[in-house]
Automatic annotation (TrEMBL):
GO terms for molecular function: carboxy-lyase activity; pyridoxal phosphate binding. The modification N6-(pyridoxal phosphate)lysine is found at residue 302. SUPFAM superfamilies: PLP-dependent transferases (SSF53383). The keyword Lyase applies. Belongs to the group II decarboxylase family. Its cofactor is pyridoxal 5'-phosphate. Keywords: Decarboxylase, Lyase, Pyridoxal phosphate. The keyword Lyase applies. This is Glutamate or tyrosine decarboxylase. The lineage of its organism: Bacteria, Pseudomonadati, Bacteroidota, Cytophagia, Cytophagales. InterPro entries: Aromatic_deC (IPR010977), PyrdxlP-dep_de-COase (IPR002129), PyrdxlP-dep_Trfase (IPR015424), PyrdxlP-dep_Trfase_major (IPR015421), PyrdxlP-dep_Trfase_small (IPR015422). It comes from Spirosoma endophyticum. GO terms for biological process: amino acid metabolic process; carboxylic acid metabolic process.
Length: 480
């Protein structure tokens, strides 16, 4: 109890003012969300970071918000807005924002489905069931939430490594790494290779499979088979793409499934964003056969349009025991019996985690299958429409057909002048109207525009295309 007249600490004051603080958070959030259409997609402001002192006595939340607004707010860009087309960023549905706020307010530590006080892991199990339905995957997959597709790839490949060790008669998670594991892939995402490095499998053990001939990134299945034959019974992990980042090409999953009946290998599908093709009857054939994979990566903070950080992995339940063997912590008495019920400490790399499933749960319940079908199909339609505009213009050319939601293009006749493409892109990004990213595709410097935000409309596409045409910059003209 405070004596009358005693100074009240900022923390106690904040508790008394909680309603005001949350109201302020609502106002700040609404101001940002309502302006997403007009806010710049690029910040040119660099806050002065040195010299700020940790206050002895804090200033309280309202003044912290003021300081944030004065000094740091300007680095915030409209990355959740309709014209942020760099990487594969996605946005946030209203329901997912509500779910995220509540997950923070509830502050659960999502371990287990029983026996640990906090049993919010049951919500995660239910959300995984909903996601299995969204992706038309059978219930022979268990799943969990991690912070992003990198950690999802990591988790799946950790179980794959345990499997590979088992083929060699070694329990790697207990007894350490062994040489001799080969990883095959045609177009592995950078994060999968990073996971191999972190897992001690080694970046250099990736053997590239040839691409299908033509303007394709998918793997050549006959080359895959030849490599599997040559490896003759050694443990092999296959990382397949569904789809690739530059042109969203998909490996032929039906043929991979057939090879799996003949050869022994672990089959991982990186479907971080391409997995969402499953939401559309028109595009789900691209993933036909993926339900036979051993493990699958899906990113939720990309096309599910929930806030960062959110991704899931699926591992086939035929590997349930192997999965637990890989990730179970040391069975310390204070953690209770980890194995008597679903305990995410035995399924994910982290121990303590927030209730990461809640934003996804809210969004899935709020918008359902149809809502997501609409988001996915609209983004694909917009990508194709943007591609058609570029292909018909005097200045641009498509580097590959628009297969799904990503447009990979360049300036015409820019083969010998990659700098011209880079200069054009930075001029365009500097307008703050749109954000795209640079890439290299089949040796050509190009630009990627990825459509994964539910807010993007035809007007945005037209506005960006007009701006691209309008930028009167020497970079547009081939050097004569
Ligand atoms: C195919 C693919 N896999 C993995 C990742 C890594 O995802 P994250 O950045 O969420 O870790 C990405 C990100 O762009 C991706 O496109």
């Amino acid at each position: 109890m405070l004596s009358p007249g005693a100074m009240i600490s900022p923390l106690q004051q904040d508790l008394e003012d909680l309603a005001t603080l949350l109201e302020r958070a609502k106002v700040e959030s609404l101001t940002h969300l309502n302006a997403l259409d007009q806010l710049p997609t690029k910040s040119t402001y660099s806050p002065k970071l040195s010299g700020n002192q940790l206050p002895n006595q804090g200033v309280g939340t309202l003044r912290a918000v003021d300081e944030f607004n004065e000094r740091l707010r300007q680095v915030i860009v409209a990355s959740a807005g309709p014209r942020y087309w760099g990487y594969v960023i996605g946005g946030t549905t209203p329901a997912s924002i509500v779910g995220d706020w509540l997950a923070t307010a509830f502050d659960q530590c999502t371990f287990a489905t029983a026996g640990q006080g906090d049993i919010s892991a049951n919500i995660e199990i239910e959300t995984i069931q909903l996601l299995r339905q969204l992706f038309n995957l059978p219930d022979t997959y268990q799943g969990g939430f991690v912070s992003g597709a990198t950690m999802s790839n990591f988790t799946c490949l950790a179980v794959a490594r345990q499997w590979a060790g088992q083929q060699l008669g070694v329990d790697i998670s207990n007894d350490g790494m062994v040489p001799g594991i080969t990883v095959l892939s045609a177009e592995p995402h950078a994060s999968a290779v990073k996971s191999l490095a972190m897992l001690g499998i080694g970046r250099n053990n990736v053997v590239r499979i040839n691409h299908v001939e033509g303007n394709r990134e998918a793997m050549d299945i006959s080359d895959l088979e030849a490599k599997l034959q040559a490896l003759n019974g050694q443990p092999v992990i296959l990382i397949s793409s569904g789809g690739t980042v530059n042109t969203v090409d998909f490996d032929d999953m039906i043929s991979i499934g057939k090879l799996k009946e003949i050869y022994t290998f672990w089959w991982h599908v990186d479907g971080a964003f391409g997995g969402f093709a499953a939401c559309s009857p028109t595009y789900r054939h691209l993933l036909a056969g993926w339900e036979n994979a051993d493990s699958i990566t899906i990113d939720c903070h990309k096309w599910l349009n929930v806030p960062y950080d959110s991704a899931i992995f699926f591992t086939h339940t035929r590997h349930r025991q192997l999965h637990i063997e890989t990730l179970q912590p040391l069975n310390s008495p204070y953690l209770g019996d980890l194995l008597s019920h679903v305990n995410y400490q035995t399924l994910v790399p982290e121990s303590s985690r927030r209730l990461r499933a809640l934003p996804a749960w809210f969004s899935l319940i709020a918008y359902g299958k149809e809502g997501y079908q609409t988001i996915i199909e609209t983004n694909i339609r917009l990508a194709k429409s943007f591609g058609t505009m570029l292909a018909g213009s005097d200045h641009f050319e498509l580097l590959a057909p628009v297969r799904l939601n990503t447009v990979c293009f360049s300036l015409k006749e820019s083969e010998a002048e990659p700098e011209r493409v880079k200069t054009f892109l930075s001029t365009l990004n500097d307008t703050g109207l749109v954000f795209m990213t640079i890439t290299v595709y089949k040796g050509r410097t190009g630009i990627r525009a990825a459509f994964s935000n539910w807010r993007t409309t035809d007007t945005d596409v037209r506005m960006v295309f007009d701006k691209m045409q309008e930028i009167s910059y020497p970079s547009l003209k081939p050097a004569s």
